[in-house]
Amino acid sequence: MLGESMTDLRTARDRALRLYDATAARTSAGVLAAYSTSFGLGTRLLGRQGQEDIRAVYALVRLADEVVDTYRGDDAGAELDELEEQTLRALRTGYSTNLVVHAFARTARRVGISAAETVPFFASMRADLTVREHDRASYEAYVYGSAEVVGLMCVRAFLNEDRRPGEPVREPDDVQVTGARALGAAFQKINFLRDLGADTGELGRTYFPGTTPGHLDDAQLAAILQEITDDVATARAAVPSLPRRARYAVGATLALYQRLLDEIASRPPEELLDGRVRLPTPVKLLVVGESVLAEARAGRTADA
């Protein structure tokens, strides 16, 4: 009887833990759904586990971003420090009372994300509280921590989507690392341009070296666009090395951001400073559909 009771208790505890894990995963999914249509569309092309992992990464990144960009209170630094402490502790234990952190830690421990990625990420978030203008060195450090490491987190999720318990974590190769970093950098720099008006007008920030808040000329914009184009090309070259579902997801997201980049490039600098550039939802759906068809055709050609 005692043995049966202990078994029942363990079963009940396991059931409760699974419920908590599922609740954390739904919380992260809700964050992504609320904040990013474009990223969300690409994520839907992954398998169930892949979607859960990418949502968990996105939600933690968004949580930190909200502290420095939306809350901006006098204690924002303390809030960010607390979030980082929660994250580091959860990476060790696999558990957090913060549902977003809990979901992230479960993914991180399964796919091999570690403090090597989270520490530079939080360092970049912390820079947003004090740094208003960047030189080339601080800009590159900021982009690495705020975006390139996020690309590395995502590629780990892609490679380990179907990894079974007990199997070794699959590590990205050099091509995948380079592509993931370039992908994160490209998306971040496009976001910098898209949010130029808000960053300079509301937050008093400028990220691009050699620029000042509220000012961007044609030559500066042309140089930034070329830098992003180079990042996109590097990221796109690594896509064929990814697992099949990830190729669809990354290809679709790249197509969306390329369309956004084209829209940004068609506008003069002063217009970018006036408001946020957006793509209508029907355009996003069309771009994703075209990308999926192109990837399907490429796959059939490769198999022929």
TrEMBL record:
It holds the Pfam family SQS_PSY. The keyword Nucleus does not apply. Keywords: Transferase. One of its GO terms (molecular function) is geranylgeranyl diphosphate synthase activity. Pathway: Carotenoid biosynthesis; phytoene biosynthesis. InterPro entries: Isoprenoid_synthase_dom_sf (IPR008949), Squ/phyt_synthse (IPR002060), Squalene/phytoene_synthase_CS (IPR019845), Trans_IPPS_bact-type (IPR044843). The keyword Transferase applies. GO terms for biological process: isoprenoid biosynthetic process. PANTHER family: BIFUNCTIONAL LYCOPENE CYCLASE/PHYTOENE SYNTHASE (PTHR31480). This is Phytoene synthase. It comes from Cellulomonas terrae.
